[in-house]
Specification:
The chain has 200 residues and is of the alpha+beta class. The protein has one domain. It is 24% helix and 30% strand. Strands 1, 2, 3, 4, 5, 6, 7, 8 and 9 form a 9-stranded mixed beta sheet that branches. The radius of gyration is 17 Å and the shape is globular.
């Protein structure tokens, strides 16, 4: 059965109007006008965050739901991602974040031939700078498709098993000497500012 790409709550008219207004103002400030006139949104997908320690032990039951993220497209071009919380606030991210999410969703469609319905979520592990699609519901376990990561093996979108993600998280955790295999690089854009790794 197919991958369930468009998951999440049905957005209220007020939220859709607010999103359209935000996109219109962003387009106007950038000197454009057409971008906000022919947009559509894929999702929104439920977003979760989990500590690196819980993830390193495979404790996905400790993941905390904290909102939803939708991918905004103009035609087929990724424009921004829109983050929604339980409140009425909407945060827009960069075009790069939209491109990363679109690329991961495209990779995830390779699971269309898996039996059963596979739900699409977004999981952030903020303390090791990993953000990934979390594909839940396959008979043989959950899958993951990296969206953003400093880990070299997760730098490009590919379908990973839970054990592969666990290994990368364990490798990224601080060693007893205080260093990590990720070096001293900082987080990618869009992965700092809150527990979920979603921008403020």
């Amino acid at each position: 059965m197919p991958l369930i790409i468009e998951t999440g709550p049905r957005l209220s008219t007020d939220k859709l109007s607010q999103l359209a207004d935000r996109l219109s103002r962003r387009s106007s400030s950038a000197g454009g006008g057409a971008e906000a006139q022919a947009t559509r949104m894929v999702g929104p997908f439920p977003t979760y965050w989990i500590s690196a320690l819980d993830m390193a032990h495979g404790n996905l039951t400790q993941a905390k739901h904290d909102g939803w993220r939708g991918l905004v497209l103009s035609g087929e071009h990724p424009v921004v991602t829109a983050d929604f919380t339980e409140s009425d606030s909407i945060n827009l991210t960069s075009e790069r974040a939209a491109q990363d999410l679109a690329s991961s969703l495209k990779t995830a469609r390779d699971l269309n031939n898996e039996p059963g319905d596979i739900a699409v979520r977004i999981l952030t592990i903020p303390d090791v700078y990993i953000m990934s699609l979390w594909l839940s519901g396959a008979p043989d376990g959950d899958y993951f498709v990296p969206i953003q990561s400093l880990a070299e093996k997760l730098a490009k979108p590919r379908i990973c098993s839970l054990s592969e993600i666990i290994k990368e998280v364990r490798d990224a955790l601080p060693s007893p000497s205080g260093g990590t295999k990720l070096g001293n690089r900082g987080p990618e854009p869009g992965m700092q500012g809150s527990k979920s790794g979603l921008p403020d």
